[in-house]
Amino acid sequence: MPQTLSASDMVTPGSLNPPPTEPTDVEQAGQPLLDGAPSSASLETLIQHLVPTADYYPEKAYIFTFLLSSRLFIEPRELLARVCHLCIEQQQLDKPVLDKARVRKFGPKLLQLLAEWTETFPRDFQEESTIGHLKDVVGRIAPCDEAYRKSMHQLLQALHQKLAALHQGPEGLVGADKPISYRTKPPASIHRELLGVCSDPYTLAQQLTHVELERLRHIGPEEFVQAFVNKDPLASTKPCFSDKTSNLEAYVKWFNRLCYLVATEICMPAKKKQRAQVIEFFIDVARECFNIGNFNSLMAIISGMNMSPVSRLKKTWAKVKTAKFFILEHQMDPTGNFCNYRTALRGAAHRSLTAHSSREKIVIPFFSLLIKDIYFLNEGCANRLPNGHVNFEKFLELAKQVGEFITWKQVECPFEQDPSITHYLYTAPIFSEDGLYLASYESESPENQTEKERWKSLRSSILGKT
């Protein structure tokens, strides 16, 4: 397996502030909830702040923060039902005669909220009942202005297109979860060496960036919350969508596949000169990934080269110019809570903010560390405070981290895609861990008794007795 780090290595325990012991009461209507304002509020108050009126519309940052975090306390379909009910009640939309002047001030704000919700969290509207709520509340304001009905039609069209795209998903990882056992001479039909498909490091780094952005595009912001959903002790509802994290999980599997693919490509060649050539090629690819801002592929490549079956190839590494590799390792060193990487990430993020081209906007974070940061934020701070209020300060920080990721994943890849390369990345067979060790021992003989015994055992179990 790739070298892994314990949770304590990933995030410094003292880096999270504990929840305040004296929660602030913010039950007064209209009190701001952003920009240094109160740290907590009741769920009912937070829902009320989401509901627009003729004279009020919530801040965009508040909408994202609350819609992201609210699923820890209430299912999205129930939240939508309550929001629509409050709109109907407060604007008296159930009356036979409507106040058309007030509805014309309220209508655009309602449609804007629904548009932001469906755009950012389209999966919240997969159930037919949620669409029913949308049609009902807009149908009540439509008599005041026919443009509302047209706007709703356009909103639903855009929503259906988004859901259809999400259901398609990225290209599957054919064979990614079933590494092959070692074969001394694998049939040409199932394996081609990567250098035969792409010999230019910059091109491969670009194609890896294509794959990363394609897979990131399918990860919804809600998956970061749903990955850690536990039943709220003060809520009567069941945890919602706790198993709906398939795109997030698929992305983690892609990282692991890339690690094993790198190790397989290195261990495959019979001659150490060829193995050294593959190592140097991947070092150059990793460097190009760093320059592009593709830190996830960078870390996967480094992890693949640091796997024990690869790192033990001392005669091979002796032929490698390792200076560039050590520089890259230094950049991704876990010391100090990945201090060097975080500095590089901030630099890439700043470049992205001031960029004039899509090429400069690319920021693909080391995904496992991002997940662990969010996990420790969730674990380090309570969702509710002792008085029952929602710890909104925590969710503002959560939304900040997830929102930044959402911005990065929306960048259009500026590089032209090469289907033959991306297909190879997805489908080339990879060795299992035992297969990698056996290939490594075949390339460079075991050096000690432990390795000799393992080699003998592997040959017996994988190749059969010789």
TrEMBL record:
A Pfam family reported for this protein in Swiss-Prot or TrEMBL: RasGEF
Keyword terms, alphabetized: Guanine-nucleotide releasing factor
Annotated segments matching region Disordered: 1-35, 443-466
Keyword Iron set for record: no
All copies of domain N-terminal Ras-GEF, residue ranges: 34-164
GO CC terms in record: plasma membrane
Entry's Gene Ontology molecular function annotations: guanyl-nucleotide exchange factor activity
Gene Ontology biological-process entries: Ras protein signal transduction
Domain of life: Eukaryota
Transmembrane parts of this sequence: none
Matching InterPro entries: Ras-like_GEF, Ras-like_Gua-exchang_fac_N, Ras_G-nucl-exch_fac_CS, Ras_GEF_dom_sf, RASGEF_cat_dom, RASGEF_cat_dom_sf
Ras-GEF domain boundaries: 200-446
Classification via PANTHER family: GUANINE NUCLEOTIDE EXCHANGE FACTOR, RAS-GEF DOMAIN-CONTAINING FAMILY MEMBER 1C
Entry protein name: RasGEF domain family member 1C
Protein species of origin: Cebus imitator
Gene that specifies this protein: RASGEF1C
